[in-house]
Amino acid sequence: MVVGNVTNNNGVFSIAARPGKYVLKISFVGYLTQEKSLQLTAGKPSVNIGTVTLPTDAIMLGEAVIVAEAPQVTISEDTIGYNASAYRTPEGAMLEELVKKLPGAEIDDDGNIKINGKEVKKIMVDGKEFFGGDVKTGLKNLPVDMVEKLKTYDKKSDLARITGIDDGEEETVLDLTVKKGMNQGWFGNVDLAAGTEDRYAGRAMINRFYDKTQFSIIGSANNVNDQGFSGGGPRWRRNNGLNATKMLGANFATETEKMEVGGSMRYNYRDADVVTVGSSQRFLQSGDSYSNSNKADRNKVTDFNADFRMEWRPDSMTNIIFRPNVSYNKTKGTSATESGTFNEDPYQYVVNPNDYLNFNNIGTDDPLRDTRINATNEHNCQNQIVCRLMQLYS
pLDDT tens digits, residue range 224-241? Predict the structure, then answer.
């Protein structure tokens, strides 16, 4: 290269050179280089090359996709966050399946959640209580598909939040963030199942989330010992025998600049039928003793629970909270016991001695008459109704 220069902001340039023949090269990053032949003489010491257009030197690439794995856990001060997409759960799984996979989380047989040793007292959806914050209702009825993130933190009491004075009444909550596509409309799910021996199970849920408003209806019915939600009390324990349950619930929450309103109602019916058959033999010096027994328990429980919450902030100095709660519980139980004691092995005389324990089946032709020592039949019936109304103002 003999000599060179750069253009100004308008692309204009000039190069001083002696008379002679030259090749002018014009180049720029991202464009093709252009060449022009020039000749300078004593009679023509300058040449105007006019406007030079440089074609682009670009290669069209295919679509580039960047894939990154979402972090499972994030920690910010006292808040632990979890990305729901980082954990694999079965198709159509409920929140319970996701929580079981969270690091440091455990669920016991009573439905209590502990995360890093702290018991979760409430489940919330986008910062609002879901069915009064009832943990089991959330675990059993919120689908994993609607959850984008989860976070657990210590929520201050209403008094501490309003006054700014720590009263030590914090409670650990699990707060769910709903996916963006699901917080602007209707969504829901329906599950149906049937099996042998007239077994059935069905569950349905419909939700309407829009901006700061939430509305949910859930219902279920089954006779496979599964309970969809607790109905306001601890109902997680596994029940013996055959349990048929029917449940219905509704939840709503909304807020404006000066007011927050929310509430829920839950109806729960359970019919538990337990039959126990027993047979025992006692080895004694005076002779063996044989005992057989039948026991039938039937318990019908009806629960209804409703709660309401209103927080009104008419001005910056006033905050009024109203939280009434009403519950109704009705229990009807029956129990029947039949037992008999024999001085000889009753199976020597009949195939099933338990068929001959009821007084109605004991007659003059009783095949166990000579071996029977005693027989007992008991019947009990219990009815109980409990109603409660609680109101809280602050």
Answer: 887 655 444 334 445 577
Q: Quick: pLDDT tens for 180-194.
A: 877 777 888 888 889
pTM for this prediction: 0.65
Distances from the Cα of 302 to the Cαs of 245, 249, 269, 272, in angstroms? 10, 14, 5, 12
What residue ranges of the chain have pLDDT lower than 70? Answer: 1, 60-61, 68, 227-239, 361-365, 370, 373, 384-394
Q: What are the structure tokens assigned to 264, written together?
A: 């829920």
Q: Which residues contact 331 (CB under 8 A, 6 or more apart)?
A: 299, 300, 301, 302, 382, 383, 384, 385
* Residue of 394, 173, 374 whose CA lies nearest to 289: 374
User: Which residues, 6 or more positions from 393, have their beta carbon under 8 angstroms from its beta carbon?
Assistant: 320, 321, 322
- Strand 118-125, strand 113-115: pairing: antiparallel
Distance of CA 79 to the CA centre of its chain: 18
**Distance, CA of 36 to CA of 56 (rounded, Å):** 18
Find out whether 247 and 281 touch, Cβ atoms under 8 Å.
no
